[in-house]
Amino acid sequence: MTTLIAIIGLGVLCLIFEIFDFRKAIIPITIIGLLAILGLTVSEFNSPASYYNNMLIVNRFSVSFSSLFIVLTLFLVALSHNFYENHQSKLSDYVAIKIFLLSGAVAMVTFGNLAMFFLGIEVLSISLYVLAASSRMNIKSNEAGMKYFLMGSFASGIILFGICLIYGAMGSFDIVEISEMSQSAELPIWFPIGIVLVTIGMLFKIAAVPFHFWAPDVYEGSPTLTTALMSTLAKVVAIATLYKLLTALHADVNYSFQIVVVVISIASMTVGNIMALRQTNVKRMLAFSGISHAGFMLMTLLSLSTSAGSLLYYTTAYSLAGIAAFSVIIYVCKNRDNEDIVNFHGLGKTNPLLAAILTASLLSMAGIPIFAGFFAKLVLFSQTIQAGYLVVVIFAVINSIISVGYYFKLILAMYTKEPNEERKGKPFLIYAVALIAIVLNIVLGMFPSLVLDLLA
Amino acid sequence: MNVSLILIILLVGAFATYLAGDKLASKVALFFGLAALGCSIVLLNHFNLGENISYISQWITLPKVSFALKADGLSIAMLLLTTALTSIIIFSSFGNDYKNSKAFYALILFMSFAMVGTFLASDGLLYYIFWELSLIPIYFIALIWGNGDAEERKKAVVKFFIYTLAGSLFMLIAFVYLYQKAGSFLIEDLYKLNLTVAEQKWIFTAFFLAYAIKIPLIPFHTWQANVYQKAPTVGTMLLSGIMLKMGLYSVIRWQLPLTPLAAKDYMFIFIGIGIAGVIYGSIVALRQRDLKKLLAYSSLAHVGLIAAGTYTLTLDGFRGAVLQMIAHGFVVVGLFFAAEIIFRRYETRIITEMGGIRSQSPKFTSMFLILVLASVALPTTFNFIGEFTVLYSLSQINIWFAILGGTTIILGAYYMLKMFQHVMLGETNSKLFADVTFSEGLTMVLIIGVLFFFGMYPKPINDLITPSLVEILKVINRV
């Protein structure tokens, strides 16, 4: 609760700085502010509470995911300094939008009422539409923003329709009341239809097959920092919210629902991976890789009551690796007109540290031991086998093998090709973000209990 | 003494080597390699005094994973093999100049760390992590410091990586499944499971995929020859000398005791696969023009026989397999090193471009001849004992297995001696062959010394490994 107010306060502060022309102070102040908010959020971990007639419910789930979102935003804001170097006059807008986006994200995992849930989605989505189109002079960015807006608002409409049907069935927006009533034997047909519509809307935001068609184009067209945001923060927010929503609605008791999750999960992994194999643009490749990771994350929906911890761990591992990878991409592709794999040739020779970081983050995504990505997959597999879905796990393993193919394409390009040109400058913040993110990833790999036990 | 000390030495050694800079890297690496060897000898002494060498601490609460290491005779034998060969391999590469050598030697030590961990781990997941971890350094060693055309090398190395990773992921599923049954990854708890035959067959197959690719057995061997040829000699030595032993060791330690019923049902099939590897490897070796490829295929033949020995499920089969694993480890490292010595002088690995070395360097020729004879299991060499024991155990199962497996000696003698003839004898080559340097000679003499010593006096190793093999056989025969 206080978290949400503080975040919005910070966003407004950013805009005020613009008015008084304190642009240089924006990023340091925002980073300090976010660190303070992180502390504030963590302090609420052991004190669950609800506010405003259950509009917001703070519990361990919401606190731990909110903290993850704040950490990710911290990284993204730190990267902004270098990324928007040439757009100093609009810096406060870009940062403020990210902060408001964070408030939407926090609202989405803290909601206790479907109205709040929808509000959160809209705040998040609208910020994303703006960020996607934020490179005004670039036609691709405009295209990405337009595409994302059209498809996204359509999905929002479907979610809203689903919420209406749930209200029609239950006569309430309150998640606790709905949860209690949903366990009764006789439910109106509107209720499951409502769940399906909301799920479809959320699957769109997650970019799961078959609702994934927007992702590659939007990822490729958007400014790289926005792509980083979409593929880490936005995806994690969406899957966490979907998880929370479905847990509250007791969706997993329904057998046909489980079948649908199995099919979507397998389809996302497979389609994402096979498409990624053919990409030469690194952002597109990571978009497809993100689709396949969405398939992995959806596996948690098969054992809703026990898998909160593993979802948190998987999303943390995935997004930390994503942040590290994207910081290297931002560094390498700065002032280039595309993000083709050619740009990465010989990075292992010209810049061994960043090449090692990118390698480590790709290995983590591929699920090689000692990186957090491995334990994330292990825990997920273990839980899914326990829930009785060995088939999904076998598909997941085959997909992990396929994914090595394209992750290694990038690693090979860095280490075996001759460098094409030297890059000047060593931007401190990019190095710091990449290094901290990957170190956190490895630490979580060595001590998975740190995160796994939070929601146990 | 804490058994994890040896892992710490190797890991710290890897970092220290990287920090030491390009000039000092090789010496620092050798220092830590020798320290690890010393440490494992101390460990051996403690073990011989009857101490229980193990270390366990809780690592992850859910799923329940422990950092559990345990050394029995078998593990210590493999530990000694790994640390001794790592030191020899590092020493043998002193004659080469590698670009960015700090990273190169750090990766060698890191790989040694992972392999030692694999041999010591007594928790399934910890074992799996070390198993996978050993793949990353060899991937980069082969990729960055390898030889030949970069594109072809890339293809070969990536194929190797994806193959081995694919195999081991199936092993991971098997482990996760076993964990669901037992509630723990500890090897003692897994040994106690009573699985149905159908379950065992699935798990056996999953393990088999991982091990057959790593060892490699036919038909999963297609990555091997190309990677051996393209990798730098150090990488080839690590792969053939130690890494493939991880697969054979794991068959004895994990696969057979966990799935004894399936192993008994499938026994003939898998002995057959091993022996098919012997014959196939020997015949293909006959036709090779590249010295490293020839050695790769001969290695395929030898490990086929070792694998056949393990799948007999008899004490003799196990003992012969372990002895032969150690013997093969030394001899194959020696042979690849000899190929490297020739390459340093002739800049070629094509057999027909060599010749006439004998008249220029009789010392090198005699050392090479001893290694060749050891590899074809001449009596008084260590390999003879290993190979003979394995063949004996095969004859207990079915005399035909022993006869077919015995072709390894006949065909082996044929292709190895033919190779020797082309490489060493014949007309004097126009190019000059400088005599072996002191360090090259020392490496060869060390390897030959080990082969002869244990060839004539195998009792220490026999006494070391037999009790633990008997224990494992007890677990296998519990039902």
From TrEMBL, chain A:
Membrane topology per record: Multi-pass membrane protein
Catalyses which reaction(s): a quinone + NADH + 5 H(+)(in) = a quinol + NAD(+) + 4 H(+)(out)
Transmembrane segments: 24-45, 57-79, 99-132, 148-169, 189-213, 255-274, 286-305, 311-332, 353-375, 387-408, 428-451
Cellular localisation: Cell membrane; Endomembrane system; Membrane
First-tier enzyme category under EC: translocase
Domain NADH:quinone oxidoreductase/Mrp antiporter transmembrane: 113-403
Self-association and partners: NDH-1 is composed of 14 different subunits. Subunits NuoA, H, J, K, L, M, N constitute the membrane sector of the complex.
Family: Belongs to the complex I subunit 2 family.
Protein name: NADH-quinone oxidoreductase subunit N
Organism, as annotated: Flavobacterium laiguense
Gene: nuoN
From TrEMBL, chain B:
PANTHER family: NADH-UBIQUINONE OXIDOREDUCTASE CHAIN 4 (PTHR43507)
GO terms of molecular function: NADH dehydrogenase (ubiquinone) activity; NADH dehydrogenase activity; ubiquinone binding
Any Gene Ontology biological process: ATP synthesis coupled electron transport
Stretches that traverse the bilayer: 6-21, 28-47, 67-91, 103-122, 128-148, 160-180, 200-220, 232-254, 266-287, 294-313, 325-343, 364-385, 397-417, 438-457
Lineage: Bacteria, Pseudomonadati, Bacteroidota, Flavobacteriia, Flavobacteriales
Entry's family note: Belongs to the complex I subunit 4 family.
Subcellular location: Endomembrane system; Membrane
UniProt KW Membrane keyword: yes
Name of the protein in question: NADH-quinone oxidoreductase subunit M
Keyword Transcription: no
Membrane topology category: Multi-pass membrane protein
